[in-house]
Design a protein that fits this description.
By secondary structure, this protein is an alpha+beta fold. About 30% of the residues lie in helices and about 25% in strands. The protein has a four-stranded antiparallel β-sheet, with no helix packed on it. It has a three-stranded antiparallel β-sheet with strand order 4-5-11, covered by helices on one side. A three-stranded antiparallel β-sheet has the order 8-9-10, with helices on both faces.
Length: about 240
């Protein structure tokens, strides 16, 4: 009997064998690509539109739980994301219309894009049932998981900005929706985003969190109760 005939693989199995070895070769390359992406400096990060297919896949793979919910008061549907602090955060700015809330420049299109701006008093009552305005402690704890704020991060809040801004790896998708000053003037659209906490700094000032496009940093600072800022609500 011809021993070669008994040991030779049928030709129809060749593609399977070749495919198996190609896969074994690709695994280290994919692993190296993932390592490079996860350890890339924030200054080198690309915009969401420039991400490669592998990078987008990695974002989906490492993303925290995502979902949606509907505000029964007005039928608005919002995305939410479970961040590294373990809490569900809204991944969109609140749009619920109530007293002492405004669209930037009083333009309804800005409400559609950036959500509404709320006085601090209004913000205390604005979140849907089961959700609440985050405290200063909750904002700070969440930010710490992504590098920290300007006052407790080695990089001054750059990593947190890159992670939390729209298109960042966290899925939080913060917007640069500006704010309304104590007068009727609006400022900083598309350059800064201001978000209320529920925590008072004093009788007239509140801790809030701010993203600054110019410096690409995430800040913890104080704002007057008479300002109007955006709201993101959370739940445990």
């Amino acid at each position: 009997m011809n021993s070669e005939a008994t040991t030779k693989q049928p030709e129809k199995y060749y593609p399977l064998v070749i495919g198996k070895y190609l896969l074994l070769l690709l695994i280290p390359l994919i692993g190296f690509g993932i390592y490079q992406i996860m350890n890339r400096k924030d200054s080198d990060k690309k915009s969401i539109n420039e991400l490669t297919f592998l990078e987008k896949g990695l974002q989906l793979f490492t993303a925290t739980t995502l979902g949606t919910f509907t505000d029964n008061r007005d039928g608005q549907t919002y995305k939410w994301v479970r961040l590294k602090d373990g809490k569900k955060w809204m991944a969109q700015n609140l749009k619920y219309q109530m007293t002492d809330t405004w669209c930037y420049d009083d333009e309804s299109n800005n409400c559609a894009t950036y959500g509404r701006l709320y006085s601090w008093e209004a913000a205390q009552k604005a979140c849907p049932s089961g959700w609440r305005l985050p405290s200063d402690k909750e904002w700070r704890k969440m930010a710490k998981h992504y590098g920290g704020c300007d006052d407790d991060a080695q990089d001054g809040g750059q990593a947190a900005y890159a992670a939390l801004i729209q298109g960042g790896r966290s899925g939080f998708s913060a917007l640069l929706g500006g704010y309304k000053f104590s007068t009727e003037d609006f400022y900083d659209l598309d350059t800064r985003g201001y978000y209320w906490s529920s925590t008072e700094r004093s009788a007239t000032f509140i801790w809030h969190y701010r993203l600054n496009q110019y410096h690409e940093k995430f800040y913890r600072s104080v704002g007057s109760k008479s300002w109007a800022c955006a709201c993101r609500c959370l739940r445990d």
